[in-house]
TrEMBL record:
Biological source species: Pelagerythrobacter rhizovicinus
Domain Glyoxalase/fosfomycin resistance/dioxygenase positions: 2-123
Protein name as catalogued: VOC family protein
SUPFAM superfamilies cross-referenced by the UniProt entry: Glyoxalase/Bleomycin resistance protein/Dihydroxybiphenyl dioxygenase
InterPro entries the UniProt entry points to: Glyas_Bleomycin-R_OHBP_Dase (IPR029068), Glyas_Fos-R_dOase_dom (IPR004360)
Length: 132
């Protein structure tokens, strides 16, 4: 059920090598690499991945700030349903369902919705979708 886990960092470049080494041992590598975040896992694979990110709110990363559990959905419709279920059950909006970023080499786009649970824990529902 878990697609990937996001961890906060105050030194992305300094800490990325640590995760590169762990990922290499596990037989995976970087699948996304940007100025504010890096993701490791299997490109197109079904296993869980991990990402390291500078907190989007601009504050210092601490345990929990920049941390998010991501739920891997089967398609954009399920992403939308998970988002709606979260809001209907006391969750709060952190980003409506929609495509994020540019399509990859196969024409798939990261499609996601962001929300918090009733206690404020950040969650995400996502899938890779064609032509969104």
């Amino acid at each position: 059920m878990i697609g990937y886990v996001t961890l906060g960092t105050n030194d992305l470049q300094g800490n990325a090598g640590f995760y590169d080494a762990l990922a290499a041992e596990m037989g995976v590598g970087r699948i996304m690499d940007f100025d504010t975040f890096v993701v490791w896992g299997e490109l197109g694979g079904s296993g869980a991945g991990i990402s390291l990110v500078k907190p989007y709110d601009g504050n210092t990363a601490t345990v929990g700030n920049g941390t998010m559990a991501a739920l891997q959905a089967k398609d954009p419709e399920q992403v939308k349903r998970l988002y709606e279920i979260a809001l209907a059950n006391g969750g709060s909006d952190e980003g409506a369902p929609g495509p994020r970023g540019e399509p990859d080499a196969q024409g798939n786009t990261f499609y996601a919705a962001y929300f918090r649970d009733r206690e404020g824990n950040k969650l995400n529902a996502f899938c890779m979708a064609r032509d969104q």
